[in-house]
Fold each of these.
Amino acid sequence: MRGAKPWFDGHDQPRVPLLGELDERKPATWECYIDLAADHGIDAFIWDWYWYDGEPALHEALEDGFLRARNRDRVKFSVMWTNHPWTRVYPTLHTDGTDGWAHLRDAPDVTLEDAWRSLSYLTSRYFHQTNYWRLNGRPVLAVWTPESLIRKHGIEDTRALFDELRAMARRMGHDGIHLHAPLVRERHGDLEALGFDSYGFYTSLPQAAGLQENASLPDFEQAIDHSRDVLWPEADARSALPMFPNANPGWDTTPRLLRNYQPAAGPVDPTWPGKTYWGDPVMFVNETPAGFRRFVQAAIEFVQARPEQPQVVTLGCWNEFTEGHYLLPDTRFGYGMLQALAEARTGERVRSPNDWTHDFFGVEGPAAY
């Protein structure tokens, strides 16, 4: 993030955390984060959880930080089995001038044996935690991409894997498992065959960007309308399972891409802000706390119109600075995104540690952003 540059006039990069560069392996960091989350309306964190080379990976923030925080019970948590390979997808410039994609570690679902080891490990490690998130009494387990398991092992073996995992959870004293699929493309029918309980979006924005024709720089406000009016209803209609809508404070992956990266051959016009010239990232313009508040309100209204399903809205994300979707305060909006979330939930102005941010985003007057 320190090296991120603006790619066009008005491009808000680099993004700088207002609280500083905190070590997320430390309990003190999460004691601060947990209070911020709970005070502004977040009920649970869903943790990306990785397993490579036969053991957990990239888990120190959860194990050493969050789970050792003195106030951890203020916020629930669950894990998302993130079954993708460890790759270097976003090219960065090396010291020798080269760059490129690289496969570093296999996904934990290459074999059913490794999938079972990793899933049974997280089931026994986390489900008994007092603040583990449950829906209808069952611990929530998100599976990043069920399609990957289906493609590698088929529906029958994948269903057997999840059935064995549920049986193990019951033997441990849990009332089964609530399986959630946060990244679903077209195979919604397979989710019911696999025994999933819900599905949704990891993030609505990149999909909503595709609804904006010829938009090199998709507009945040338009994406909110597309999500509410097209994306969520279409996804909801594809399955009888509950669909959880998702709201995001923004999206911008340019910090992960080479400056002026051009995958296609041929000349480019350096004065044109075209996505091909930039390596086809998705980046939004016109994100504001006011827009995010409207996004969250739309998602809440969507689930309230379906009272028979769990009243869940997912948000992406807490700390993804390099993808430009995060709720942590920054030097651009201060605590504005967190305040917008709280106000969307309560309908009232919520004071944050630097309440002066309200005065900077007056689109409806000085008392509101």
Amino acid sequence: MAITLKRQLNEEEKKTILTRFGRKCFANNHDIPESDKLHFDHIRAHALGGQSELDNIAPMCEFHNKAKGMLPLEDFRIKLQIEEFFENGEKQTLKHLLEFFKTKKLITDFGQSVSLKESGKIISAENHSFNNAFDLHVCPLTKWKYFYGNLPIDILNSDDEDDQSIGLQPRYLIFDKVFELYRHFQIYPVLQPSIGRVKGDKILLFDGQHKAAALLWNGRKILECKIYVNPEIRILNQTNIAAHDRFAQTRFFSPVLIQKLGQQFGKDFEAYKNIEDGQVKSEIGFLEYLERIQDTTMTRAERNKRFRSYLYDSVLNDPTNKMKSLISSSNRGSMEEPITVDMLSKSIFSCFLNTEPVADNMASDSYKRELEFSNNIQLLNILFDLALFNWNKDSSPTKTEQIKLERIFASKSIMAWSELFRDAVCAKLEITDSDERARPFYRELTDTDFDKIRNIFSRLIGIQFWSLPKDSEIDSVIAGNKTAVKDWLKSKGLTSGYLLGAQE
């Protein structure tokens, strides 16, 4: 239901408004055809101080006036602009938003270099358009220097990864959060500054990007910031990761975090392997090495979790992984990206990726981790080639093929059938030892082996009940817990025996 004016405008008032705006819809500035009905609404809501004066009223087309629902016109206009920004994809950071703003001429520039000079307890920042000085503070624990300041967007950028170095920005922007914060900051103050660091002659923000994005949409060109001048990147990165994971108010588990952890540990991994101390180099030894060089407050469980993230990253971000484009950048699946990392960690990875550190000598043929990565990527590609290649985010909700895929790759569904699939694969590849079954892909597999795996998965997705009409029994079952789903699948004939070739 659209918000309407408290009174009807007379013709003279309408003419005044049209003289000011032209016959253009305020929502996105498109021309309103002469034959279309004109609507008029408040630009700024009464609740936010908007008045009923003519200078707070703008024309709208009928479509947008109905589409905006209960949103004030100004908020609806911004929502459309944010939607336009996210049409570029979900994996957008503050840097992408700044580029968008510059293209749209909403800001003149961003990321300018500055000259930073320290003098006692003062630091000055200067370039052709900015000159200011700030008090320097020192962290009593790390001894890092930092300053607080209101900084123009002209000299700020996002701390993203580039070709030369890893950035500290741990996640992507989320549409709902940006829009909600945009509306929040119309009424409420900013409680905490955005946080960044000095890198060369650049100031890069790595925390508070949603806040910064929302303020930008509110027209703010100056942001409150806390900037570290001389941080140790390793510790700052670990602190930032912990803030977004271990100590976050809302925990999340996504490829972005995994990528940051994986990249960090990957670098340490290489350093550890190159240590010449005469000791056998193993993954277990690597984690012990991490205990010596990293944050002593990190528990062994946390360290193991981060190591698993390194393993996940090696599979998920490999350029040959065909499923990569369907893996969600957040902890929620969507029609565009239906597969989440949490889902994979509890299904395919749980069954086929050994997530425990091994004692095998990394310099010997017994170390099979790279083969295991390759085998898991090949498995994901089988799932894509035989099923997910046909995923259609724009498909009709009643289309049989899409219904089938949504059932097969529902969260509890994939967790349940992955275990049956793993049992069949182990049987077909004659992996019977319990220790070996715990890591079935930690070995060299041939093309013939993968032909067998492909045939097993073909039987799994070919069983009839996946294609039952919408709202059949299966739809309520796969919404339950994994054990109940697994029992139901087996009761309907999806057993390891069937996957190995028995009749349905």
